[in-house]
From TrEMBL:
Pfam families: AsnC_trans_reg, HCS_D2, HMGL-like
Transmembrane regions listed in the UniProt entry: none
Domain of life the protein comes from: Bacteria
Organism (species): Bellilinea caldifistulae
PROSITE patterns to which the protein is assigned, alphabetical: AIPM_HOMOCIT_SYNTH_1 (PS00815), AIPM_HOMOCIT_SYNTH_2 (PS00816), PEROXIDASE_4 (PS50873), PYR_CT (PS50991)
Designated name of the protein: 2-isopropylmalate synthase
UniProt cross-references to SUPFAM superfamilies, sorted A to Z: Aldolase, Dimeric alpha+beta barrel
Record bears the keyword NADP: no
GO biological process, one term: response to oxidative stress
Domain Plant heme peroxidase family profile: 142-373
Length: 460
């Protein structure tokens, strides 16, 4: 059965600008364990005292997942992995000529000796060992086989085939893994695929098909450069295509949101599975189909992933979707009224970027000439926001500007960094808005002031 090793805490923390606290790492490890990943790569304890501390804390949590420490092939690195209490050490050492010669200035035989020596050391300390030939995909194949078999003989029970630069294509990954399998002594095989050409998950899946046992992921696909496969996408793929049913897929979006918040690394709206738009439908053709039978435009039921379908209303929207949205508010309209409402939405949608429910209800009110009880009187508020120190204020401002209800955003001096002027229809919406804001990546703290009277409306 295919397995997942999640490396958010090691590879993921190698993402530019990303630094987790020990507490955040402990929480991420707990959440990963709840998803059910088989292994958690908790960090390289030699990197810093805090990384050591995080590995030690996570190793002591008694998780179901095996806790792995990453390490260079050095005595001190392996001793630190042991001292931190990891069950396994993943020793990496390059095998490609360019890495050996131009990075380390070592020849192949010396490399082989260093690798086996350190594996034996780790085994003598009672650690399980994975050996990673770094840059395996650009390594002379015969040498790769020789090194891996020597590593297995020295005591490694896992080999991680690393496509460190993400240069392989899926069919090449398949062929390489298949050939390696045929020539390797018995061992488990991991695949560590980088995403430089956007093929990381495709490569990982082909590698599994060719006989590998485990793929490496990070939450939100973080990592060096373009990162490695995203955990949520990988878990869904294994569920759908490889019969792996034990991962708790419904917890993946909240894990993604938590990691987004504490890392300051934003999830793109078009990201599969966890992105804002992954289950949104916009054009009239699509929304009409989805309202009749969601399977017309959804290959996966969003509920399987703890998500909800979203129908976007704007100038692309047809009558069916508008009627459905009005019905959600308990409002029935005549066919001719509906036609005029949609027409008006198209006109406004041509000029304005985002249409909110309040706008749609207001249009319905104008068109029908009926005062809608459900249309509430709006609340104005100023929300002050403090931004995490490692996050650019501009990045949070950009996000805020796209949020529903936000009218003006100011970067300000003082304790807080941003003031946002918002208009919301109800206190319930105000509450939801503030909750949403609190989980936004980069937002440290919020303070909200409700406006009681507004004396001049000059648009400021
Ligand atoms: C790196 C090392 C590594 C190791 C992968 C692994 C890679 O270059 O930082 O241990 O499986 O991509 O080769 O992340
Ligand atoms: Cu890597």
């Amino acid at each position: 059965m295919a397995e997942i090793l999640d490396s958010t805490l090691r590879e993921g923390e190698q993402t530019p600008l990303v630094n987790f606290t020990v507490e955040e790492k402990v929480e991420i490890a707990r959440l990963l364990d709840a998803v059910g990943v088989e292994m958690i790569e908790a960090g390289d304890p030699s990197v810093s005292p805090k990384v050591f501390e995080a590995v030690r804390r996570i190793a002591g949590l008694g998780l179901k997942a095996e806790v792995v420490a990453h390490s260079l092939a050095t005595r001190s690195g392996i001793e630190k992995a042991h001292a931190a209490g990891a069950a396994r050490v993943a020793i990496f050492y390059p095998t490609s000529r360019i890495h050996l010669q131009n990075k380390l200035g070592k020849d192949e035989d010396t490399a082989l000796q260093t690798i086996t020596e350190h594996i034996r050391l780790a085994r003598s300390l009672g650690l399980k060992v994975r050996y990673t030939p770094e840059d395996a995909s650009r390594t002379d194949f015969d040498f790769l086989v020789r090194v891996c078999n020597a590593a297995i003989e020295a005591g490694a029970d896992r080999i991680s085939f690393a496509d460190t630069l993400g240069v392989l294509r899926p069919h090449e990954t398949y062929e390489r893994v298949k050939a390696l399998r045929q020539r390797l002594l018995p061992c488990k095989m991991d695949l560590h695929c980088h995403n430089d050409f956007g093929l990381a998950l495709a490569n990982a899946l082909e590698g599994l098909r060719a006989g590998a046992d485990c793929i490496h992921t990070t939450v939100n696909g973080m990592g060096e450069r373009a990162g490695i496969p995203d955990l949520a996408e990988a878990a869904l793929a294994l569920n759908r295509w490889m019969g792996v049913e034990h991962y708790d897929l419904r917890t993946l979006p909240s894990l993604a949101a938590y990691v987004e918040r504490v890392s300051g690394f934003f999830v793109a709206p078009n990201k599969p599975v966890t992105g804002l738009n992954a289950f949104s439908h916009k054009s009239g053709v699509h929304t009409n189909g989805v309202l009749k039978d969601p399977r017309t435009y959804e290959s996966v039921d969003p509920a399987l992933l703890g998500r909800e379908r979203r129908i976007v209303i704007d100038k692309y929207t047809g009558k069916k979707a508008v009627a459905a949205r009005l019905e959600e508010y308990g409002l029935q309209v005549q066919p001719d009224e509906l036609e005029r409402i949609v027409e008006e939405i198209k006109t406004i949608g041509d000029e304005r970027k985002i249409l909110h429910d309040a706008d749609i209800l207001e249009i319905a009110e104008q068109v029908t000439g009926r005062r809608l009880d459900i249309f509430p009187r709006e609340i104005n508020a100023i929300v002050m926001i403090a931004v995490e120190s490692h996050v650019y204020t501009g990045a949070v401002v950009r996000r805020l500007k796209n949020l529903k209800y936000v009218f003006n955003v100011y970067e300000i001096t003082g304790e807080q960094d941003i003031a946002a002027y918002i208009k919301v229809p109800t206190t319930l919406e105000l509450n939801n808005f503030i909750e949403e804001l609190r989980t936004m990546p980069g937002v440290k703290q919020t303070e909200t002031r409700v406006v009681l009277k507004k004396h001049a409306d000059n648009g400021f």
